[in-house]
Amino acid sequence: MNASDHDKSCCEVVADHENLAKELLGGMPPEEDLYDLADFFKVFGDSTRVKILYLLLCSEMCVGHIADTLGMTQSAISHQLRFLKQMKLVSTQREGKTIFYSLADAHIESILSQGYEHIKE
Amino acid sequence: MNASDHDKSCCEVVADHENLAKELLGGMPPEEDLYDLADFFKVFGDSTRVKILYLLLCSEMCVGHIADTLGMTQSAISHQLRFLKQMKLVSTQREGKTIFYSLADAHIESILSQGYEHIKE
DNA sequence: CAAACATATGAGCATCTGCTCATATGTTCA
DNA sequence: TGAACATATGAGCAGATGCTCATATGTTTG
Q1: Check whether domain B41-119 has CATH 1.10.10.10, yes or no
Q2: What is the 3-state secondary structure of B68-88?
Q3: What percentage of chain B reaches a pLDDT higher than 70?
């Protein structure tokens, strides 16, 4: 069975099923935003990145320090930080040889804590 | 360079670097919770699932109707709904042959909207 | 019970992801 | 300038992911 085979009689009686679909789709953000949104949440969908974000919630940190604290390689952390930076969740500040990473978005803490509330139910 | 090779002198002077790491790790949720948290956010990290959640935000819907509205196969949607159910984001209610899915968590709307705020900056 | 309908599920496959390894880039200081 | 340090990055690989296709399960109705 593919997308167009659904017998609409299963749901409440609706005069024009196609128009309802359009109406529902019209009520949500545009397609492109939904992709961006999914990409944004992908950031939080990996435990390494979540750990990094939690660390940065306490204070800004350099790459090597994050790697040490999490017991991971500098390379792995650096790759993830690049991703976090692309997604504008962290920002950097160079001081000599070292580069400090810090959170760049105010929503992060509340998003994390709301997710945490969910899994703790 | 691996995790233990980092020369701690790059950061602020800290008396006992290892203890600081433990302290930072102690300030965040336990390892297992962080995995659960990442798994939770993984749900929002796919545009198909985000679309489903947005639809269910409007009203409960049956599988075939969701598939139709999104222009995807019944199978694809059913697989995703199973995942959403496992993660306790949706719940089901059978009425005869059809099964209605609805949101099962109050955090979903605010998590989605905070994510949306972020990408709209 | 058999046919029709709604949904669920397992296998298979192409793509994506997150790591490692080696190496490059950039900075400081002797 | 060259050595040491901090970070970035590209290639490659194993495992995860999201779909399709075929089929199974469950429900209603003739």
Answers
A1: yes
A2: HHHCCCHHHHHHHHHHHHHCC
A3: 81
